Amino acid sequence: MLLTKVTEEVREALAAHRPVVALESTIIAHGLPRPRNLAVAEELEELVRSQGAVPATVAVLDGTVHIGLDKRQLERVAGDEDIRKLGHRDIAPALAAGASGATTVSATAFLAARAGIRVFATGGLGGVHREWTRTQDESADLRLLAHTRITVVCAGVKSVLDVPATLQRLETLGIGILGYGTEEFPGFYLASSGQPVDWTVRTPEETAEVIRARDALGGPDTALIVANPVPESEQLDPVLHDRVLAEALDECREKGIEGQAVTPFLLEYLTRRTEGASLEANVAAVRGNVRLAAMIAAAL
Ligand code: PSU
Ligand code: MN
């Protein structure tokens, strides 16, 4: 059975050691509203190309892993209301069932690293939820990144999470963090979460130096997070953010929403109740991350 299909363009770029950037599909299918999601997905691929790198959007379609999607496949991921959300534990059952699903950070990092891709861009990572003591909800992203050697460019972790607790978990798990042009950990919709980072890099070349040093050392075999803040001019108004997020968390608890549905619910609630302002901040953050990821891949 054919498990994985890598597009010719991605295969050739990897073989020739040209820059490739992996992109996840859950943000498209479950993180952004239709039909804007398709426009963003296409724009992100274009952004990677404009930096001279090859985009590899990852998804599972009809029981096959795809590393790199064509236009029609991207349209399917963005348009299919029934497409599932797949973490890394869900890939094998999805393949066996012939199912289709968008891949989260955990599933995308797993598949991209296995395909030989070294740089991956997304919006914000999953992490420890604020209700953790009651729900024990911690994103599978963290455990997977604890044993996968890949560089992930993101705007920190989603601010709907318990950010200090997530930073503690990242330290425990040995996942590296570099602030990109900042001494503070970004806050996804916000330029800063108010938490400090221990290491700062300021150029793609400096970032590549860290990756090379890890390679020369032979480890650790964990992910390296390049935490790239959304520009302050494009961030969500912090007062609006805090107010609407508090409402979103109350509503999530009252409705008894659990498991995989929590993150999409919170993101959708924020988009609706900030009249699209959180969506613009989210898209601005992802754009910046994708552009930076392409530059880091080129510097490698
Ligand atoms: N970044 C975004 N929007 C998203 C996500 C990331 O800007 O929707 C997705 C990623 O796929 C991430 C997932 O892995 O949210 C986390 O979901 P959970 O908390 O259920 O693990
Ligand atoms: Mn979860």
Can you summarize this structure?
With 300 residues, this protein is an alpha/beta fold.
Bound molecules: pseudouridine-5'-monophosphate, manganese (II) ion
Q: What is the third-level CATH name, the topology?
A: Indigoidine synthase fold
Give the uncertain stretches in residue-range form: none
Major sheet: 11 strands, mixed
Measure the end-to-end span: 34 Å
Note the run of SSEs as H and E. Answer: EHEHHEEHEHEHEHHEHEEHEHHH
Radius of gyration (CA) equals 18 Å
CATH class: Alpha Beta
Fraction of helical residues: 40-55%
Residues in β-strands, percent: 5-15%
Tertiary shape: globular
User: Can you tell me the number of structural domains?
Assistant: 1
The overall pLDDT, averaged over residues, is: 97
CATH architecture: 3-Layer(aba) Sandwich
User: Structural class of the secondary structure composition?
Assistant: alpha/beta
CATH superfamily: Indigoidine synthase domain
